Amino acid sequence: TAGPDLAGRHVVISAGGTREPLDPVRFLGNRSSGKQGYALARTAAARGARVTLIEANTGLPDPAGVDVVRVGTAVQLREAVLKAAPDADVVVMAAAVADFRPETYATGKIKKKDGQDPEPIVLVRNPDILAEIAADRPRPEQLVVGFAAETDDVLANGRAKLARKGCDLLVVNEVGERKTFGSEENEAVVLGADGSETPVPHGPKEALADTVWDLVVHRLG
Ligand code: PMT
């Protein structure tokens, strides 16, 4: 395992999946368990970093020696990331962020009405936190790492996403109902804005996390 090669560095990591409420009892969500983000937090702390972990709806216990901030929605996640980022050497967005949220929030539980069709759910766009952070870096030497959850054309979609989001590294992983989400293992290709491509074979989420930190340490110089 690596030595304390992240000592003196502050890393900000997001983990989990945002929930976008429809009413007091319902939300639109996704299958992220937060395990990949927590693995990044544990491994960064083990390598000496000061870690701020911003978690959305994981229910996981706080990793030792890590500052944990809890959020629910994409808008709250954005606020927490923007608050922590100015002081960070590295920002890693491992959270699964909802691209859209319901336009309206019903303050009372939405009721079904006899004989009536359900009301359609109108969605509006959520802010793109990764693109915003990458475009507007509080420190020029700050590194921004994204994740891409893809179900098909994984590499082509990953390259396009890397360019669109403007981050330094993009960890492209394949997801499905029973793939990656919630599992202890992952498999990925880490794409660099410099054209690099680092395949990470199927293995524990910690192993992928350590490869991400290796690439980060190399780039921090
Ligand atoms: O949590 P686990 O069960 O361990 O599963 C891990 C994981 C599959 C959730 C993780 O490895 C992963 O891929 N996370 C990113 C999921 C995702 O939202 O991918 P995306 O392709 O939709 O988004 C691309 C990137 O933009 C991500 O870094 C995401 O955090 C960011 N994003 C997306 C939308 C948005 N509105 N704002 C963002 O910042």
Automatic annotation (TrEMBL):
What is this enzyme's EC? 4.1.1.36, 6.3.2.5
- Cite the annotated pathway: Cofactor biosynthesis; coenzyme A biosynthesis; CoA from (R)-pantothenate: step 2/5; Cofactor biosynthesis; coenzyme A biosynthesis; CoA from (R)-pantothenate: step 3/5
Q: Which GO terms describe its molecular function?
A: phosphopantothenate--cysteine ligase activity; phosphopantothenoylcysteine decarboxylase activity
Task: Provide the binding site for CTP.
Answer: 99, 109, 127-130, 147, 161, 165
Keywords attached to this entry: Decarboxylase, Flavoprotein, FMN, Ligase, Lyase, Magnesium, Metal-binding, Multifunctional enzyme
Cofactor(s) demanded: FMN; Mg(2+)
The note describing how and how many cofactors are bound reads: Binds 1 FMN per subunit.
Note down the stretches annotated as region Phosphopantothenate--cysteine ligase: 11-221
- All copies of domain DNA/pantothenate metabolism flavoprotein C-terminal, residue ranges: 6-217
> Which reaction equations make up its catalytic activity?
N-[(R)-4-phosphopantothenoyl]-L-cysteine + H(+) = (R)-4'-phosphopantetheine + CO2; (R)-4'-phosphopantothenate + L-cysteine + CTP = N-[(R)-4-phosphopantothenoyl]-L-cysteine + CMP + diphosphate + H(+)
Explain the purpose of this protein: Catalyzes two steps in the biosynthesis of coenzyme A. In the first step cysteine is conjugated to 4'-phosphopantothenate to form 4-phosphopantothenoylcysteine, in the latter compound is decarboxylated to form 4'-phosphopantotheine.
The family classification in the record reads:
In the C-terminal section; belongs to the PPC synthetase family.
- Protein name, per record: Coenzyme A biosynthesis bifunctional protein CoaBC
Instruction: Write the span of the intact protein that is present.
Output: 180 to 400 of 400
